[in-house]
Amino acid sequence: MKETTYVYGKEEYRVTSDSEGNIRIITVNGKRVKFSYRKVQEHVFLVEFEGRKETVYVAGERGKFYVWTGKRGYILEEKSEEYSASGAVKKEEGVQYVTSPMPGKVVKVLVRPGDRVKEGQGLIIVESMKMENEFTADFDGIVKEVKASPGDQIDADVPLVIVEAESRGE
Amino acid sequence: MARIKKVLVANRGEIAVRIIKALKELGITSVAVYSDADRDALHVILADEVEYIGPPEPLKSYLDIEKIIDVARKRDVDAIHPGYGFLAENPEFAQAVIDAGLIFIGPRPETIRLLGNKVESRQKLVDAGVPLIPGMLATGLSMEEYKKEAEKIGYPVMIKAAAGGGGKGMRIVYSPDKLESAIQAAQREAKSAFGDESVYIEKYIENPRHIEIQILGDRHGNYVHLFERECSIQRRHQKIIEETPSTALTHEKRMEMGETAIRVAKTVGYESAGTVEFLFDKYGNFYFLEVNTRIQVEHPITEMVTCRDLVKEQINIAEGNPISFKQEDLRQHGHAIECRIYAEDPEKDFMPSPGKIIFVSEPSGPGIRVDTGIYSGFEVPPYYDPILSKLIVWGRDREEARRRMIEALKNYVVLGIKTNIPYLIDILEHPEFVKGNTFTTFIPDHMQNWKPETGVPLHVFMAVEAFQESSSPVSVSQDGRKKRISDPWLTVGNWRIVK
To answer: For B385, which of A2, A11, A130 is closest by C-beta distance?
Structure first.
C-alpha cells in the first residue's frame, strides 16, 4: 500500500492506493473507489471506474504532476517536508521563502535585510514575458535575507527573499 | 517586377512559423533569426537557413535593426518579412530595409509613419469623410463652451481626463442638466489622480464592439477589403477571441464599412495587407480607431472564410504584382473563430507562465487549424509575448464553429506550464457569448470574478497514481507483488526496420 499527500492550491488530499489483482483501489480523503487503467500512449491514460471512462493526460517531474482532464488543468504537488503548497513558503512555521513561480529578471528589490515588513507589502518585482509581477509578504515580519539583486536572471522556485514572522523567536 | 527567391523572417514564435510555411509552399528559401533564448524554437527548426542574432533581450536581438540588416546582406536575401510586433510597424526599419536595396514585405515607410501619427492622419481622414469618434480634444473650456460642445456631439457624452487612463476622471453624462456637476467631479478626480485637472468631451459609445476590416492594396492602385473581424473579447485591451462574420453586421453595414476602409487605404495609398479598426455602437454607427500596418495575429479567420492566403498575397504584392483577385471574387463562407493560447495562469490574475512544456497534443479534425510555435519539450522563454499558438476553427455557421472550438480546446493538451485554455472554454460557453452579445466590456461584465471549479475529481488521482506506477521500471504482478518489467523493447535501445 502506498500513501501520499497531494497539494492542489490550498487544498490537501490524502491518497492511498492498493490493488486486488488487476483492480486498483484508491482512497482519497477517506472515499474509497475501485478503478482500472490503461496507458495508451506516453502521458495518456484511460481510467475506468464506477461504469465511467475518463481520458486523463499526465506528466510529472520531481514530485510535481501536471494533469489535463479534457476541460481543466491541475497541478498537484506531492507534499514533502521541505516545501508546502505554493512552493513559495517553506513548511517551517513563520518563515516565508519568496520565490517566483516562473523564470524571469529581477527588476527591483523593495526591501533590505533587517527591514520590518507588513503583510501584503511588496518585497521584490520580477519581470517575465513583458509583465512586471510583485511578490508580497505573507505576514508581518522581518526581512532575514535578500538573495537577489536588480538585473539578476532568476529561475523558478528559487528563494529570492526570506521573511521571518514578527513573533517568531520572541 | 522583382521575383522574390529568398526571404528573411524578422520574427519568432507562431507568426515566424506561419510565414516560413507560406514561403516553403511558394518555393522561396527562408532565413530565420534567433536569440539565445530561441536556439531550439520551432521557427529555427523549420527554416532553410538560420542566423544567430544575440542575447534574449529583444533590444539586443529581434529589435536590433542593424543586426537584422547585416544578416539579410550576409545571407543575400531579396526581402524581409517583419511579421507582427517587434519591428513590424517601425518606419525606420522599413526604410533601412529599402535603403539596403531589399524589399520590405509590408506598407511603404511613409505610410507606416503617417498612420502611426494619430494627429496628422486624423485630419487627412476627416477630410476624406472617414467617421471619427465625435469629440473635442480641447481642454480648459468654460462651462458654457463645454455645454455647447456636448450639444454639438450629442448625448450621451463621455468626459475624459487629458492625462487619463484606468477610468480615473471619466464620467458618462446622459442629459444636459447633469453635465456641469459631472465635469466638476471629473476635474477633481483627474486632479487627484494625475495632478492635472484638464478634461475633454467625447461621444460616449454605447455597447461598443471592436470590428475591423482586412484590406489589401497594391502599387497599381487596386484595393480590396476581405470583410470584417469582430475582436470585442479583450482582456486589458488584449484581444483573446476573434470571429468573423460579426453577429452585429447586416450585409449593407458590412459593405459600408468595407468601402470606408478602402477609402482610408486610398487616402494614404496603402500597399500590402493592413487592418482598419473601428468602434461600432448599438445604433450601427461606426467610428475609425486606427490602421494596423502589418499582418495581424487574427488574420487566419479571414483566410478561413475567404479561402485566401494573406501572407502569400503580401509576398505577391511585394513583388510588384497586382492583387491576385478582385473584390467581386470574394465571398464569406461559413464562420470562423480564433482563440489565442497564452502561457499565463488564469487562476492567478493571468501571471505569465513560461517554462518547459513536457507534453503537447494538438486538436485535429475537420475545420481545425493550429498556428503554433511550440512542441513537446520546448522551453517557453520568459522574454517575449506569452502567446504560444492560435487555435482557429471553421464551421458552416457560428454555432457549429463555437461548439467545434470548445471541443478543440478540450482536446488541446499542454502539460508543464499553465495556459488560458480553461478560461477560453468558459467564455465560449457563456450564455451572452452564445447569443452574440459580444461587447468590449464582455470580460469586465461577465468574467471578472471567474474562478475554476474547485476540488480535484477522483480520476485525476487515479491517473497520477497510474502515471507513477507506469513510469517506474517496476510493475505490479497479479499477486500484488512488484516485479521488474522485462519487455525487450524497453531495453533494445535505438532500432529500425531495415526491410
So the answer is: A130
